[in-house]
Amino acid sequence: MHISSMKTLAIVAAAIGTLAAMPAHAGKTLDAIKARGQVICGVNTGLAGFGAADSAGKWTGLDVDVCRAIAAATLGDAEKVKYVPLNAQQRFTALQSGEIDVLSRNTTFTLTRDASLGLEQTVVTYYDGQGFMVPLKSKIKSAKQLKGQTVCVQSGTTTEKNLNDYSKANHLGIKPVVFEQLDATENAYFTGRCIAYTTDASGLASTRNKVAKNPADHVILPELISKEPLGPMVRRGDDEWFSIVKWTIYGLIESEEYGITKANVDSLKTTSDDPVVKRILGTSEDSGKLLGLSKDWMYNAIKATGNYGEIFERNVGPKSSLGLPRGVNNQWNKGGLMYAMPIR
Length: 344
Hints:
Elements: H1 3-21, H2 28-36, E1 39-44, E2 52-53, E3 59-60, H3 62-75, E4 81-86, H4 91-96, E5 102-103, H5 111-116, E6 119-121, E7 126-128, E8 130-135, E9 150-154, H6 158-169, E10 175-179, H7 182-190, E11 196-200, H8 201-211, E12 218-220, E13 228-230, E14 233-235, H9 239-257, H10 265-271, H11 275-281, H12 288-291, H13 297-305, H14 308-315
Parallel strand pairs: 1-4, 1-5, 9-10, 9-11
Antiparallel strand pairs: 2-3, 6-14, 7-13, 8-11, 8-12
Helix pairs in contact: 3-9, 3-13, 9-13
């Protein structure tokens, strides 16, 4: 190789290295968040375990904790969140128009949504599937027994389309009874307007626990008729904000993998010799500057919400009121699908 060519390659390599080490431009969304001192997060109007407010107006749930972690990572304070409750029809318009910064509202990632809405799908925070709930007294044991039956379903959701696809594929002639609002859909089922109610299996468990007079009177059938990967979405066009939301979620997942918890994060910050733990907590490398954030961005998030496993257990896990198994939402090295891109 000629000396001049070698010099050229060296210059290019040095330039690439310099660019890689440069702090990220904050981006217009992060600039707006810092100026107002608040992350505006779109959440469910009331789905226990994922996004719901109590009588005092305090929001809790898995999707809510994701919002809190993002606020902690960006502003250093998990309480600096404004929650905007949105139904299925409102959610995408609210994000497209800039009314909210991030949509964290049990939303399924699909090709159509990714390609046509001007929005970005970030990271899956809950792997779900669509199921059916029926009254115990109906003695229905399988979704295949719903032939010719009425099924309550909310409009403007993947659930409605999946129901129609399932009915056609299996020649069931199911009669959808469609409602715009979640409350109306649930009420119609519990007052007997439909023999079954269909939505994500996690949503069925939430509804049964929250709305049924006696949860034991209702059975969630064993079949899942779809894949429903749920997670936050952001507006397309702000790559910096997309990266912040994405890497905050990856950080929560990887923190669980490496045993970093809300209880031990302070001690690990000062005592851990594990290179991965030190990178996550910002004690050896400043990954925050690559995102336009402080060095302790991930420490702040974990300190506020705990890792992904803690968020799952607190809101929807076996010891919560929903009592959902960890299942496919377990870590990849424990038989699940939760696999974080590495913070390095």
